[in-house]
Amino acid sequence: MAWINGTTIAMVLFAIGATALIVRRDLVIKLLALGLINSSGILFLISVRFHPQMTVPILPVPDGVLIADPLPQALVLSAIVINFAILALSLVFVMLLVERYHSTDCERIEHAVETEKATLGSQNLATISGSDETEGRP
Amino acid sequence: MISRAVLLALLPVIAGVSLFQRRRLTAVIGMGLFSLALAATYLLHSAPDVAVTEAAIGAALVTVIYVLAIRRTGRLLVVGDEVPGLLAFEGDKLVGIEVEILEGFARQLGLDLSIQVIPHAEVEATLLRGDADLAAGGLCADCDGRLHRGRTHLPTALVRLSSQKGSPGGSRKEASTKRCDYNGYFSDLVKAIRSNEPVEATLDMARFLAVSRCDLSDWTVDRLSDSRGYAFVAGPGRADIRKQLNSYINTLEDTGALDEMIRRHLP
Amino acid sequence: MKRTIRTILALLVSMLVCCVVLLDLVVPEAPPRPDDTILLAERTGASNLVAAVYLGARLYDTLFEVLVFTVAVIGVRFYLSHRPSTARPVPIPESHVIQASAQILLPLILVLGLYLTFFGHLSPGGGFSGGVVAASGLLLCVMSIGLDTVYKRLSGAGIERLEWGLPMMIVAVCVLPTAFSRPILSNLLPIGEAGQVFGSPSILLLNALVGLKVLIGSWMVLYTFIRHRGEI
Predict the structure, then answer these.
(1) CB contact, 8 Å: C72 with chain A?
(2) In this complex, which of C48, C128, C221 lies closest to A58 when CB atoms are compared?
(3) Residue C92 DSSP class
(4) Are residues B220 and B187 in the same domain?
(5) Which residues of A touch C (CB under 8 A)?
(6) CA gap B152, B97 in Å, rounded
(7) In this complex, how many residue pairs, one in chain A and one in chain B, have their CB atoms less than 8 Å apart?
(8) Region of poorest pLDDT, from A33-42, B56-65, B123-132, B208-217
(9) Which pLDDT does position C231 carry in this prediction?
(10) pLDDT at residue B175 greater than cutoff 60
(11) Do C19 and A11 touch (CB under 8 A)?
(12) Segment C180-200, tens digit of pLDDT
């Protein structure tokens, strides 16, 4: 039972998040898995130096009691808010992709993008080869 | 002490179960629950600031913006394959009986209609995944138990078509295939039949009518004995759409508009 | 394809096992020294040591956090700006349950947000959590009244101009101590009695500014999403 502490569970959560990120093909679930990886890192940072006898880092503290380390908690606070902002931005991109390609499946979107690039590339080739000759050397 | 261990052991279970769900909404709500459990864990690890922030952000705001990002934007998504007479391309537009029914239905619901043509075999999988609301395009077979089948708007029958030059693979498929069955798009099938490639397919009457315009002297045609009907199929959990669609088709039939549509598109 | 998935999974599982085994060997056990924390409290005058850290000792990091948040909000508004996605926004008839419960709950939520923000240096909370709680209160408001009403009232009060001005104000509060010949990023206002509300007024001021920033930023994100996607 002693091995169920925050650090090991954070590792397990990281592994679950990474597996879901690779295996699932839906973009929204990939983002959820990324959020899970973030949360696992935060849990790890908070629970690294934690004893069960430690108390809350707020100041009127009785004598002889250790305080939980306030430094990682402060750093992690900013990290949570930044995660939310970055998640909002990445959801914007997912929404734009879905509205364009009508699917959240990453393989289908990649396929559609490549076919688009192929058709656009074959159109551009003619114009590029035409304009190259007009550019003279200094 | 024990509650901390129990909560920590519960976290991977919640995360694992919610990330490997089939529906996206279930995964989002599961991760909201995971955020709450994580906030409680932070509290038990003597980090109350982090706990309050994680609870407020993870459970409230993140779940809300995911739900907003997932939902469909007031559109009725229909997928299906082409069937001449029911859902066919005329130049760039789609015309047919089913197209008219769907347009009127979408207008009644106040949504935009968006029809996508995908290969016949993928229709059910798309519905089950939740990527579409309705399936159209001459569906006349029994569908998966989770999907909701509407009422038939046009009766039909099944016809089995096989090339006499010898079927690919050497073995005949049993006539117990009770569904309209072919690979890929219908237009590819027509091209294959025209170029006399060996093909095995089970077709319904509308598709067969289109195919019969080609030269079918080399082909064996068996008419299967059951009679079926065309219907729309709604995705899992969209029984409300099926109910509304049924009532809409009922009103169409009562006013005689349905018969008029059939007469116009299928001579 | 299945084989690559299996190999990746095996890789991850082995990584997990290695980490679990090696962890107890790598991280040394050293409890934090109590003297540092008392020094921190005396320097900033805050009882909540976490607030003392991220608004006192580590103010520079908080500045950049504000910057990243601002840039992300700008990005969200920019990328969703050019398209009126719902051509006729369909107003959703609000359920009376939501309206009635919002009338009761909304003052409580806003008071909780204000309390978390303004007492963040004495008890758990702070600018971040206070701002987020108040933003979820605004969301409840939107769900019960309707987006356009709330937006008109808020932008009538000049919330967008406030959003532009807040990062500058936060930077100004950080830079101003140089005018009083004190080092940059230190306390702007003098410290009073530790443990009282106005015991550390500069931390209170910074908490309030950061809370307001997070509130307005989250509101902008939510508003842009709801405008683009239709009301909940």
Answers:
(1) yes
(2) C48
(3) P
(4) yes
(5) 3, 7-8, 11-12, 14-15, 18-19, 22-23, 48-49, 51, 56-60, 66-67, 69-71, 73-75, 77-78, 80-82, 84-86, 88-89, 91-93, 95-96, 99
(6) 13
(7) 114
(8) B208-217
(9) 64
(10) no
(11) yes
(12) 777 777 777 766 666 677 777
Helix crossing, C127-145 with C147-156: angle to 10°?
130
Residue B84 confidence class, pLDDT cut points 50, 70, 90? confident
| Structure-block tokens of residue C229 | 């996607």
Whole-prediction pTM value?
0.69
Task: Please report the pLDDT score of residue A71 as a whole number.
Answer: 87
pLDDT at residue B190 is higher than 80: no
In the 8-state DSSP scheme, what is residue C57?
Answer: I
Number of domains in chain A: 1
- My answer on whether B66 and B82 are in the same domain is no
Residue A138 in any domain: the answer is no
What is the C-alpha separation between B204 and B153, in angstroms, rounded? 14
- B167 has a pLDDT exceeding 50: no
Residue A30 C-alpha, separation from nearest chain B C-alpha, in angstroms: 9
Regarding whether B107 and B149 lie in a shared domain, the answer is: yes
Amino acid of residue A27:
L
pLDDT for res A133: 45
Query: Which chain C residue has its CA at the smallest distance from A47's CA?
Result: C27
Closest residue in chain A to residue B6, using alpha carbons only: A4
Half-sphere exposure of C181 (CA within 13 A, CB side): 0
